[in-house]
Write a structure and sequence with these properties.
Blueprint (H helix, E strand, L loop, with lengths): L11 H25 L5 H27 L5
C-alpha cells in the first residue's frame, strides 16, 4: 500500500513532533506578549489560556489515537 500526502513516509513522527514544539513555542510567545502588554488580571488569563490549550491537547491526542489505531494491527 502506497501512502501519499504531507504526513506519509519515514519523517511522519519527526514532523508531528516538530509541529507540536512549534505550537508550544507559539503559545508561550503569545502568553509572553500578553503579559508584557499589561493586561488587568494576569492570573485569570493564564488559567483560561491553559484550560483552552488543555482541551485542545486532549482533542489532538484523541484524534491521533483514533487515526493510528487501525494502523497498529
Amino acid at each position: 500500500m502506497v501512502r501519499k500526502g504531507l504526513f506519509a513516509g519515514e519523517n511522519t513522527t519527526n514532523m508531528l513532533l516538530g509541529l507540536t514544539v512549534i505550537r508550544v513555542l507559539g503559545c508561550l510567545a503569545f502568553i509572553s506578549y500578553m503579559l508584557l502588554s499589561n493586561i488587568n488580571d494576569v492570573l485569570w488569563f493564564i488559567v483560561n489560556f491553559f484550560l483552552i490549550y488543555l482541551l485542545y491537547l486532549i482533542f489532538d491526542i484523541h484524534s491521533l489515537i483514533a487515526n493510528l489505531r487501525p494502523h497498529s494491527r
